[in-house]
Amino acid sequence: MPRPRKNRRREARRVPRSDATLPEHDRGAVPEGLVTRRQLRDMGLSPGDNNGPVAILRCKWCAYRPQWSCIHPTRGFLLRVDLAKPKRVPTLAQERALDRAIAARSTCPECLRRYFFCLPLRTRGRCDPCHGGYQPSPDTYLASTAPVTHRLAA
Q1: I want to staple 62 with a disulfide (CB 3.0 to 4.6 A). Which of 50, 52, 58, 71 is the partner?
Q2: pLDDT of amino acid 120
Q3: How far is Cα 137 from Cα 105, in angstroms, rounded to an integer?
Q4: What is the pLDDT of residue 84?
Q5: CA dihedral 48, 50, 54, 10 (to 10 degrees)
Q6: DSSP 28-74
């Protein structure tokens, strides 16, 4: 029999907006030059070393409470675009190492088929068709007549 739940009331931590450490902006009223991390990523940029958050993007619920500071987990942090740097491009050796790591997780040790997804090697130690004793459909693995040659992931 499960234990009964304890009903605990959460205390509302309210911080007046004037005491907030960073300036806050409502959605749709963000000044030019400030974007979120996701918008930076879409532009092909990364935040950079010294580009910490300079403002807070308030959540949609806090738009109804302009006198309080937004402390919800759905708030976003705004970064400056002029301090952002271009994304780093991995070297060929890094891509090769990443491909080897992905190939180790997606290649069955029994049938040596390389699948398009990671296999449950830690729990079962082999792919589902080898575990269940059936033939896999050809669209789930890389069909190759040669031994497993690891191709670059990118």
Answers
A1: 58
A2: 86
A3: 19
A4: 92
A5: 90
A6: T-PPTTEE-HHHHHHTTEE--SS----EEE--SGGGG-TTB---STT
